[in-house]
DNA sequence: TGAGATTTCCTATATTGTGGGAATATGGAG
DNA sequence: CTCCATATTCCCACAATATAGGAAATCTCA
């Protein structure tokens, strides 16, 4: 099928994961043939993979309709991941930042070409926890790119840069320049590049290797985050990010001395 | 290796899922050899599966220590699963039940031989969201067994019934009798069977096929949930469960008329 | 610096996943 | 109620893919 630059020797597993990934864009339930269509796999293969995922609890099949939905293992391990990262401990910090800045606060992590919001300041399902945002058109994404480990900082690997508004950066060269600017400034700005009338400022949460683990954003309107106050917002966000750096690095990692 | 009663034709996928499952019992990070040991797979195989999971974002590998942790796709799809089930809409109902009863409220779903708490009334990581509890020693579990679909109600399939306290039901026959009692009464009781001094009452959240989708529990001390007030607690829990039944059945499922 | 453990890569083998196709079940329309 | 279209599930021969052994590279700790 694809020539697929991946040198991995695990077709079945990657296909199974792409079955799970269908639920990112699809509705809450998908039929076996939906899965086959979306993954471009044969009906038999999609069906067999789905059954394997059901047997391990990552999918669930409705007894009546035979449609699939994400299963209990997914929720369980998702929560576990949340706790194992220590994210349940950062809520107070984020709340404080939100109050100090009167802005909405998001904490995100990179997942391939997307930023996934781990803790969303909004309960709005359209911009809340679990949401995927593109890297090129968000402040979170620019931060995740600017401090990415070598090899994952390739703008070309993002594919076509889809415009969200007329301000969205769509030229890879422009994006590289923007990323360079972000790295120098220490924060990223998204001024209506993903949606109109929204201005977001993001900073990295770094580990000791100076690589980004999470991105932290404060989001509001241009009337609140004015040009002259950007420095002030950056300072507050940076302070919160530093607090998170302390909270989010596990004891095990912390014992590793750097110099 | 195992004779493995599963008639499925997907070894690689199931093995990959068992790699993910390692993180349920293990620490927040596991090394490649940890994974090989726990899954009883050869080093090469465990390593290759782990890499495939990393490439799809379900695992993450620390650049420094080369250890693995659960990845962003896990958190993302976990949250997605949460929302797609409509669970973000039930918080008010659960809060109301908690206030009315002055008890802790848990909502759980079955995952194989365990109950997974989807919304835990406690922020305590030891008894909060994402926790796995055994089916035989919890009120949640008894409910999930009592209304299980045919074929999944087999007590024998649970394996050995491990005692948690001296009150834990360990004889399969006793458990079957208890399940029968639960079904008749409409609620399950756990009186110190999983931990001392804790009494829990659980009721099912049923779909129209009279099969259990979720289990809802109120948990407190025997001084609060006294013998004489059990009926009162059951009534309140049952009322809340009915409200959840309305909330949690998707519109798609709802349009299916039953009689 | 050296011993031991761990991560990672490579390759031959056959076990395992693959997809065509047929049988069965489901739901909608007339 | 019956028929038709669509979707789900099962079966089987083929060969592509995952497997495990071993060796090299890297890291850890003394």
UniProtKB/TrEMBL annotation, chains A, B:
One annotated GO biological process: glycerol metabolic process
Gene3D superfamilies given in the database record: 3.30.450.40, Winged helix-like DNA-binding domain superfamily/Winged helix DNA-binding domain
Keyword DNA-binding annotated: yes
Keywords: DNA-binding, Glycerol metabolism, Transcription, Transcription regulation
One Pfam family it belongs to: HTH_IclR
Coiled coil keyword on record: no
Residue ranges of domain IclR-ED in the record: 73-250
GO molecular function term, any single one: DNA binding
Domain HTH iclR-type per the UniProt entry, residue ranges: 10-72
Domain of life, per lineage: Bacteria
Purpose of the protein: May be an activator protein for the gylABX operon.
PANTHER family: HELIX-TURN-HELIX TRANSCRIPTIONAL REGULATOR, ICLR FAMILY, HTH-TYPE TRANSCRIPTIONAL REGULATOR RV1719
Record protein name field: Glycerol operon regulatory protein
């Amino acid at each position: 099928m694809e020539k697929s630059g991946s040198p991995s020797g695990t077709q079945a597993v990657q296909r199974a994961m792409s079955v799970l990934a269908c639920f990112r864009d699809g509705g809450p339930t998908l039929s076996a043939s939906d899965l086959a269509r979306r993954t471009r796999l044969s009906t038999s293969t999609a069906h067999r993979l789905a059954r394997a995922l059901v047997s391990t609890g990552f999918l669930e099949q409705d007894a009546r309709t035979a449609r699939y939905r994400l299963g209990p293992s997914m929720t369980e391990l998702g929560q576990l991941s949340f706790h194992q990262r220590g994210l349940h401990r950062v809520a107070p910090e984020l709340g404080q930042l939100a109050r100090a800045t009167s802005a909405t606060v998001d904490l995100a992590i990179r997942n391939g070409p997307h930023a996934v919001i781990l803790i969303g300041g909004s309960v709005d399902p359209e911009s809340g926890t679990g949401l995927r945002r593109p890297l090129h058109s968000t402040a979170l994404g620019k931060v995740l790119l600017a401090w990415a480990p070598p090899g994952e900082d390739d703008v070309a690997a993002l594919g076509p840069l889809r415009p969200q508004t007329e301000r969205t950066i769509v030229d890879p060269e422009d994006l590289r320049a923007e990323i360079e600017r972000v790295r120098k400034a220490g924060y990223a700005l998204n001024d209506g590049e993903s949606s109109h009338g929204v201005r977001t400022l993001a900073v990295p949460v770094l580990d000791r290797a100076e690589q980004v683990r999470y991105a932290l954003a404060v989001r509001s309107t241009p009337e609140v985050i004015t040009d002259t106050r950007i420095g002030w917002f950056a300072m507050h966000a940076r302070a919160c990010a530093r607090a998170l750096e302390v909270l989010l690095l596990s004891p095990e990692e912390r014992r590793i001395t750097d110099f």
